[in-house]
Amino acid sequence: MASRRAAIKAIDWAAFAERVPANQKAMFNALKTRSDALSARLAALPEKPPAIDWAHYKAAVAKAGMVDEFQKKFSALKIPEPVDTQTAKIDAQEKEAAKTTAEYVQASKARIAEYEQQLQKLRSMIPFEQMTFEDLHEVFPETRLDKEKYPYWPHKPIADL
Amino acid sequence: VLHATRPLHTTQQCLAPLPPLPEKGGEVRHGLIPEEFFQFLYPKTGVTGPYMLGTGLLLYLLSKEIYVINHETVAAACILTVLIYGIKKYGPAVGEFADKLNEEKIGRALAVKNEAIKNLETAIEQEKKEQWRVEGRNYLFDAKRNNVAMLLEANYRERMLMVYNEVKKRLDYQVAMQNLKRQREQDHMIQWVEKNVIQSITPQQQKDSITKCILDLKALSKSAQAAV
């Protein structure tokens, strides 16, 4: 019986719900309803079926060997446990998720570093009143006028003025 | 404020960014003569020195006819009057307007910078939040495994229940069959006995029993009246 009792962990649905991003809420709700349905179904079933009162039947049924035969076959009967095919897949999924997560976190950290750098540059900028145009182009490179592409003044397409 | 000479090219170091320009230009007296001139002459000639110099110079120029008074002098006088009057009256307003334009430009630039900073900060916040979210993936897999376990358990219990129910149904059927048979036999026997008894009641017996019943009823009615 030990293999049957794959421990059913208590899940903190509230904390789980917090971590779900908005675009996956529908999937989360589906999972939750399925989970709840399953646990309701499980709770409705008794753990063991009630025992059959063999003595009563032996007294009641006239035919001689029938009850004994039934009793013998019943106690000899072994119900096969359902085979667990999915847990291995889930474990594999989990491993893969761990890997992709690590990658994502890496990328995220790189992005944060970039942002931090930009932020640092902006914060330590000299005030606009003391800047020359060269200084401005250093801090905001998009303001630099492309004198090679547009050699004539105003060095940018007229539509952009 | 007196203009100290701006410290450009005084040292070998390159002063970049340049120190900001002072707010106001050097002081002038009468709009023309810088204050430094008066300060320069003050030690030797005191306060009135430059004015004496100026008056004397003017008189010299006029008396020696080095500067000749003609039509142009009058024109110059009128033009200068108008100019000075205009500048004194509207100068500050124009200055303010120009300053406002400049400030707007700088304000726009500042707005751009602040917005950029804000966006970067929110972006960093978002990234951190996403990282936090991702940490919760364990919940998902626990939930899945739970689902699987619950499904298996429910299945097993259902099977056991089904077996029990089936066996019980069969045994109950047997018992019920027996009971039914016994009951049918009893009913049949009762009916047969009744039928036979009724058959055996002769007409004479019937008449006798009816007469007796009537007598009984009469006796009963007498006692019943008393009770009412």
TrEMBL record, chain A:
Keywords: CF(0), Coiled coil, Hydrogen ion transport, Ion transport, Membrane, Mitochondrion, Mitochondrion inner membrane, Transport. GO terms for biological process: proton motive force-driven ATP synthesis. It comes from the Eukaryota. Residues 83-125 form a coiled coil. Its main location: mitochondrion. SUPFAM superfamilies: ATP synthase D chain-like (SSF161065). Signal peptide: none annotated. InterPro entries: ATP_synth_F0_dsu_mt (IPR008689), ATP_synth_F0_dsu_sf_mt (IPR036228). GO terms for cellular component: mitochondrial inner membrane; proton-transporting ATP synthase complex. One of its GO terms (molecular function) is proton transmembrane transporter activity. It is found in: Mitochondrion inner membrane. Belongs to the ATPase d subunit family. This is ATP5H synthase. It comes from Syrrhaptes paradoxus.
UniProtKB/TrEMBL annotation, chain B:
It comes from the Eukaryota. Keywords: CF(0), Hydrogen ion transport, Ion transport, Membrane, Mitochondrion, Mitochondrion inner membrane, Transport. GO terms for cellular component: mitochondrial inner membrane; proton-transporting ATP synthase complex. One of its GO terms (molecular function) is proton-transporting ATP synthase activity, rotational mechanism. It is found in: Mitochondrion; Mitochondrion inner membrane. Its main location: mitochondrion. Belongs to the eukaryotic ATPase B chain family. F-type ATPases have 2 components, CF(1) - the catalytic core - and CF(0) - the membrane proton channel. CF(1) and CF(0) have multiple subunits. Subunit b, of the mitochondrial membrane ATP synthase complex (F(1)F(0) ATP synthase or Complex V) that produces ATP from ADP in the presence of a proton gradient across the membrane which is generated by electron transport complexes of the respiratory chain. ATP synthase complex consist of a soluble F(1) head domain - the catalytic core - and a membrane F(1) domain - the membrane proton channel. These two domains are linked by a central stalk rotating inside the F(1) region and a stationary peripheral stalk. This is ATP synthase subunit b. The gene is Atp5f1.
